[in-house]
Specification:
297 residues, 49% helix, TIM Barrel, single chain, 7-stranded parallel β-sheet, globular, alpha/beta
Amino acid sequence: MTPFTKEGAVDEVALRKMVQRQIAGGVTGIVPVGTTGESPTTTTEEDAKIFQIVVEERDKAVGAGVPKVMVMAGAGSNSTHEASEYISNAKKAGVDLCLIVSPYYNKPTQKGLRLHYLALADLGLPIIVYNIKGRTGVNIETDTLMEIAKHPMIVGVKEASGDMAQIKEVLRRRDELEKEAAKEFTVLSGDDGLTLEVMKNGGDGVVSVAGNLIPSELSEMVRIALGGNFDEAEKLNEKFTRLFKDIFVETNPIPVKYIASKMGLCDLAFRLPMCEPEEKTKVYLEETMKFYNLKGV
């Protein structure tokens, strides 16, 4: 999440604490300024500062002996030129790679998607493709993904299409891709509720919304699944199924940020058109907090 002050500025103190809490929770990566980070409402200058802060906090942890946590900057746009600016700022900040959402609203063709991603990949920073048709209006077809993934700087995909048949096809074709491109290609779930199903089919983990609240538990579930103990991982998955659902009772990140504010992680502050949840939603989410014993930190 991107914490804001009541006056509307980026809350740098809260952001640093959030990063520290995530690292202490055992995550292997942090994504600043993604969808949950309210990227449509932050400025280019703010994004650059946020990238810098997250990298600084990560580096402090590494200096203290924590295994390296990767920083994946949200740097997507529906303008290739604008996305290239974000990537440039991310590179200057020292991030490890970028998460590039498929262009939204202008609905490019598959050819346009291919040209967009290849142009950005040529900038020299590794890229995870972010496919989320529900927000962008355009699906990145698997043929297109496999074609652009031959580029050495396109190293994976965050699959949030919600289409398990498509995700299974991506996973099935990954072996052939990896042989041809002579590199590993990471497939991450973009939906907490589908994480375990994706991993059972060969996926590598998740870019999580719920992890903003329960980083230790989510990290543990993924580690167990990566170790092949799906029965044990399923117990954690079932335990948090309600949370995975409830944090989408209104548009993300409204519910997760409301819970985070009640836990003392940040102020309940959004930038329009994002806004506080309805009163009935607040009551509902507070019941969710009681169910999971989510308390102040």
